[in-house]
């Protein structure tokens, strides 16, 4: 059998894979609850993407259980598992990169988001961040407690800095966490390769031992 250390490392990484999938699935549901600021940053499409990624990771985990419980000489389960890990790694890179690219043009991107919001939502954001409009003096939604008068509202700072700061915090945490999953999938890929090589090596020694009629190799 593969060494206990190798098996322990593989099992720890596999547990990390399972937790990663659970995190993606859990947050894709938790973040569907209404939240004034978060809803500007994360759409239902984004949440569905996180759910799909989480399901992919959990499918890989289920396949890993099949691989590790296969009889000793067999490696087909690990080979299938590694191909699934490659697919998961590509999906992780794609999702993480989409989020990261969005952070590069936040001020322009969130101006479009601001303009798409209902006036009532804009007023809530203005009251929350004590600002008026997106950029100063533009796209002001009159009403609420802070921007009730056009004269006073025009002199107040715009909401661009407050909104992009909140969005940047959320997006940075998301793509950093998602990219972190790559460390798990790649490490698990290498650990699975080691499992394959160890099984092949032990099987080769077993065959040699059988031919020699001895009991010394495995």
UniProtKB/TrEMBL annotation:
Keyword Transmembrane helix applies: yes
Identification of the protein by name: Tetraspanin
Keyword hit for Transmembrane: yes
Protein species of origin: Hydnum rufescens UP504
Domain of life assignment: Eukaryota
Keywords attached to this entry: Membrane, Transmembrane, Transmembrane helix
Transmembrane annotation, as ranges: 7-31, 51-68, 80-102, 178-197
């Amino acid at each position: 059998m593969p060494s206990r250390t190798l098996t322990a490392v593989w099992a720890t990484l596999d547990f990390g894979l399972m937790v990663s999938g659970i995190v993606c699935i859990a947050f894709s549901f938790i973040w569907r609850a209404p939240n004034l600021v978060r809803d500007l940053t994360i759409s239902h499409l984004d949440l569905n993407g996180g759910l799909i990624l989480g399901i992919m990771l959990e499918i890989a985990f289920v396949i890993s259980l099949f691989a590790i419980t296969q009889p000793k000489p067999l490696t087909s389960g690990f080979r299938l598992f590694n191909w699934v890990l490659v697919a998961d790694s590509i999906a992780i890179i794609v999702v993480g990169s989409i989020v990261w690219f969005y952070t590069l043009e936040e001020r322009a991107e969130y101006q479009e988001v601001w303009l798409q919001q209902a006036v009532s939502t804009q007023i809530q954001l203005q009251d929350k961040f004590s600002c008026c409009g997106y950029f100063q003096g533009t796209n002001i939604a009159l009403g609420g407690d802070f921007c009730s008068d056009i004269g006073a509202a025009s002199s107040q700072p715009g909401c661009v800095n407050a909104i992009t700061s909140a969005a940047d915090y959320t997006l940075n945490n998301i793509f950093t966490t998602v990219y972190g999953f790559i460390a798990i999938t790649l490490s698990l890929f290498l650990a699975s390769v080691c499992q394959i090589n160890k099984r092949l090596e032990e099987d080769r020694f077993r065959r040699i031992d059988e031919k020699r009629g001895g009991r010394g190799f495995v």
